[in-house]
C-alpha cells in the first residue's frame, strides 16, 4: 500500500516537473503543487509508522496472555497435587483410627471379661462387709442407747429419737397413776413469781454434776450451746436478748420476775439454776434456748418439759399443762411451726427442780431463715410477746 502511494507521489512529481517546465511563467501554481506533494508524503509516513506500532503492541499483549495462561495452569497443577496429598493423609489417619478403635474394642472385651470376674468376687466381699457393718451398727445403737446423755446445752440436736422415746414412755401419764404417794405441785393463782433462765454463757463449763438427786450419772454443766450457721451468732446472745424482753413484758402484766443471770459471762451449772427457782418458790421457771440440727431444713419451735420420773413426779402435771399452753400460744401468735411438747428425763435442770419448769426452743439456728429471724429485734419482740401471753394464760384462773 505504501509503495503504491509512493509511486503515485513520484508520478505526480514527474508530471508536476513537466508542467512546471511548460508553465514556468506561473510560479504560484508550482508552489501549490509542491506543498500538496509534501503533505501526501507526511501522511503516508504517519500511516506506515502507526500500523507498525499496532502490530508490535499486539504481539506484546499476546505474549503476556500466554505467560498468564501458563502460570494459571502451573497453579492448578499445584493445587491438584496438594488436594491429592491431603486426601491420602486423611485416608491414612482414618485407617489408623480404625485400627486404634479395633484394638481398643478388643482390649475392652478382654477387660469386660476380667471385670465381670472381679465384680462377682467384689459382690461376695461386699455382701460380707455389709453384714459385718450391719452388726457393728446394731452394736453401736445398743451402746448409744445405754450411754446416751445428750443435753440442750451441747446442742448437737440429734434428740428427735430421744424425744419420741421419752414421749412414748410415760409422756402422757399422770403422776398419780404411777406415783401414788407423791405430793403434786398445784396451780396457785396468787403465786405471781416467774423465774427466767437464759441458756448458756460466752464460755463452756465442763465441770460435772449429778444428772438427778442421788444419781451416780454425771453430766457437764454447760456445753456452750449452738451457733447461727449463717449469722455466726451464738445461742446465748439471742437467749439473753429474748429473756430481757420477756422480763419487761411479764412485769407489765403484774408478775414478779427473777432472772437467773443478766450477764453472759456468768456460767452457771444446771443444779444451781434449778435451785434459784426452788428458793423463789416460783409459779413457773421458763428456760430460754434456741435449737440446732444437722439437717438444715429442720425448723419450728419445741416445748421441752420433764418426763415422768421419781424426781419429777411432783411437778410433772403442772409443767406439762403450762408447756402446752405456752407453745400453742407462741406459735399461733408468731406464725411459726409448732413441733409440739417433748418429754425429757435427761435434763439436769428438770430433775433438780421442785417447781414447774419448761424449756422453750425458739427455732433452729441451723436453718437459714430462722437464723436470720432469731437475730432480728422485731422477731425477738414477737417471741417475747408470745411467751408472755402464753404464761399469762397458763397462770390466770
From TrEMBL:
GO molecular function: N-acetylmuramoyl-L-alanine amidase activity
SUPFAM superfamilies in alphabetical order: Zn-dependent exopeptidases
Transmembrane helix in keyword set: yes
Assigned GO CC terms: outer membrane-bounded periplasmic space
Compositionally biased region (Low complexity): 145-160
Enzyme Commission code(s) on record: 3.5.1.28
Coiled-coil regions listed: none
Keyword Transmembrane assigned: yes
Basic and acidic residues bias: start-end ranges: 87-119, 162-175, 199-210
MurNAc-LAA domain mapped to chain residues: 274-392
Region (Disordered): 65-119, 139-175, 198-226
Transmembrane annotation, as ranges: 28-50
Lineage of source species: Bacteria, Bacillati, Bacillota, Clostridia, Eubacteriales
An example Gene Ontology biological process: peptidoglycan catabolic process
Name of the protein this chain belongs to: N-acetylmuramoyl-L-alanine amidase AmiB
Keywords from the named record: Hydrolase, Membrane, Transmembrane, Transmembrane helix
InterPro entries (alphabetical): MurNAc-LAA_cat, N-acetylmuramoyl_amidase_3
Stored CDD domains: MurNAc-LAA (cd02696)
Amino acid at each position: 500500500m505504501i509503495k503504491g502511494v509512493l509511486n503515485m507521489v513520484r508520478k505526480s512529481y514527474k508530471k508536476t516537473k513537466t508542467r512546471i517546465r511548460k508553465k514556468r511563467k506561473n510560479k504560484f501554481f508550482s508552489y501549490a503543487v509542491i506543498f500538496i506533494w509534501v503533505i501526501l508524503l507526511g501522511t503516508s509516513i504517519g500511516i506506515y509508522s502507526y500500523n507498525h506500532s499496532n502490530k508490535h503492541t499486539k504481539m506484546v499483549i499476546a505474549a503476556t496472555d500466554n505467560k498468564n495462561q501458563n502460570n494459571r495452569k502451573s497453579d492448578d497443577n499445584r493445587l491438584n497435587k496438594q488436594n491429592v496429598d491431603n486426601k491420602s493423609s486423611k485416608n491414612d489417619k482414618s485407617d489408623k483410627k480404625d485400627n486404634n478403635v479395633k484394638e481398643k474394642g478388643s482390649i475392652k472385651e478382654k477387660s469386660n471379661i476380667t471385670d465381670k470376674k472381679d465384680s462377682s468376687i467384689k459382690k461376695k466381699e461386699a455382701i460380707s462387709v455389709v453384714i459385718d457393718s450391719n452388726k457393728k451398727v446394731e452394736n453401736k445403737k445398743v451402746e448409744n442407747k445405754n450411754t446416751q446423755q445428750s443435753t440442750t446445752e451441747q446442742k448437737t440436736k440429734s434428740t428427735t429419737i430421744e424425744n419420741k422415746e421419752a414421749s412414748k414412755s410415760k409422756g402422757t401419764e399422770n403422776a398419780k397413776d404411777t406415783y401414788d404417794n407423791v405430793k403434786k405441785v398445784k396451780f396457785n393463782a396468787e403465786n405471781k413469781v416467774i423465774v427466767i433462765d437464759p441458756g448458756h454463757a460466752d464460755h463452756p463449763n465442763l465441770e460435772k454434776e449429778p444428772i438427778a438427786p442421788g444419781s451416780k450419772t454425771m453430766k457437764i454443766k454447760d456445753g456452750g450451746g449452738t451457733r447461727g450457721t449463717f449469722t455466726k451468732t451464738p445461742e446465748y446472745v439471742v437467749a439473753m436478748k429474748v429473756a430481757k424482753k420477756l422480763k419487761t413484758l411479764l412485769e407489765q402484766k403484774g408478775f414478779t420476775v427473777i432472772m437467773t443471770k443478766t450477764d453472759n459471762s456468768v456460767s452457771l451449772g444446771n443444779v444451781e439454776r434449778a435451785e434459784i427457782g426452788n428458793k423463789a418458790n416460783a409459779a413457773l421457771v421458763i428456760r430460754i434456748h434456741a435449737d440446732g440440727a444437722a439437717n438444715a431444713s429442720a425448723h419450728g419451735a419445741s416445748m421441752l418439759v420433764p418426763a415422768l420420773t421419781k424426781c419429777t413426779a411432783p411437778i410433772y402435771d403442772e409443767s406439762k399443762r403450762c408447756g402446752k399452753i405456752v407453745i400453742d400460744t407462741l406459735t399461733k401468735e408468731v406464725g411459726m411451726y409448732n413441733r409440739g411438747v417433748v418429754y425429757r428425763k435427761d435434763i439436769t435442770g428438770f430433775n433438780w427442780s421442785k417447781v414447774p419448769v419448761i424449756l422453750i426452743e425458739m427455732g433452729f439456728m441451723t436453718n437459714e431463715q430462722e437464723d436470720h429471724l432469731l437475730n432480728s429485734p422485731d422477731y425477738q419482740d414477737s417471741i417475747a410477746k408470745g411467751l408472755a401471753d402464753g404464761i399469762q394464760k397458763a397462770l390466770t384462773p
